[in-house]
Design a protein that fits this description.
The complex is a heterodimer of chains A (233) and B (36). Chain A is 79% helix and 0% strand. Classes of the chains: A mainly alpha (233), B mainly alpha (36).
């Protein structure tokens, strides 16, 4: 990608990111003022409107990394590895939100910050797997070796994503079954469902915006390194 | 029956979300600016 193409992509990335941040503020207002309080859990249940969308964005990002890792091993295109790396980093950011808001909500409804059940444990494992993915990428100097090794981790992590989603159905767990993506109609009341879907949309746009910016950052960094290498030679 | 008095938990959750997202946005801005 040429420098001017990267700069144009940056403009689109910033437009999406800033729109999503504005959307996030609107989600806060709608969740706080225009969405009913859940009867038994009280106002703390409103963490739901950031916890679930951040989990969605995180799993989406990790799944994208896994799929691109598969494609990279098949096609050996450098661009696929660069996007996979960008998606992994963005997934970790949303993972931090998911893994901090979850225990806060859990403390109020379960009386415990953490429970070692199937969903929480496998989600933490996935997060740590991607921490390892980023550490590995920082430790391997040769670009092709780095891409190949990290692609293997990305594919292994991809296997975990559906397991995490279906773990609430496969095991006895404290986590409730999915309230929206399930057999039959969603169990959430209308106003809560609209707030949740709005938040999922906002986090999805934020993911795409972050991904574009992080990808452009990698491209600009590579262009600078190439220019520096040309200057030396 | 009233609701449990636990709104502070939701506020903390929203603050953490905002801080994480804004810090990452700022980090992207600084790193991109450095490369341009």
């Amino acid at each position: 990608m040429e420098r001017n193409v990267a700069v144009r992509s940056l403009t689109r990335g910033w437009a999406l990111t800033l729109s999503a941040l504005l959307g996030l503020a609107l989600v806060y207002v709608r969740a706080a003022l225009f969405t009913p309080i859940e009867g038994t859990q009280g106002p703390a249940q409103k963490i739901f409107y950031v916890h679930v969308p951040s989990a969605w964005a995180s799993l989406l990002a990790f799944a994208v990394t896994g799929v691109l890792s598969l494609l990279y091993l098949r096609r050996r295109e450098h661009k696929l590895d660069t996007i996979a790396d960008a998606s992994a980093e963005v997934g970790l950011v949303f993972g931090v939100v998911m893994l901090t808001t979850g225990p806060i909500w859990g403390k109020t409804i379960w009386g415990a910050w953490w429970a070692w059940d199937a969903k929480l444990t496998s989600t933490l494992f996935l997060f740590l797997l991607f921490v390892g993915y980023k550490v590995l990428r920082g430790a391997v100097v040769d670009p092709e070796t780095r891409a190949r090794f990290s692609a293997v981790i990305g594919i292994l992590a991809l296997v975990l994503v559906p397991f995490i989603y279906f773990s609430v159905l496969m095991f006895r767990t404290l986590h409730p079954a999915p309230p929206v993506l399930r057999a039959g109609a969603p169990t959430l009341p209308g106003a809560m469902l609209i707030t949740l879907l709005l938040s999922v949309l906002v986090f999805s746009v934020l993911y795409v915006g972050f991904l574009m910016l992080r990808y452009c950052l990698s491209v600009l960094r590579e262009l600078r390194e190439e220019e520096a290498a040309d200057g030396i030679s | 029956m009233g609701y449990p008095d636990n709104a502070a938990f939701a506020v903390v959750g929203y603050i953490i979300t905002s801080v994480v997202v804004l810090v990452y946005t700022a980090s992207l801005y600084v790193r991109i600016r450095k490369e341009r």
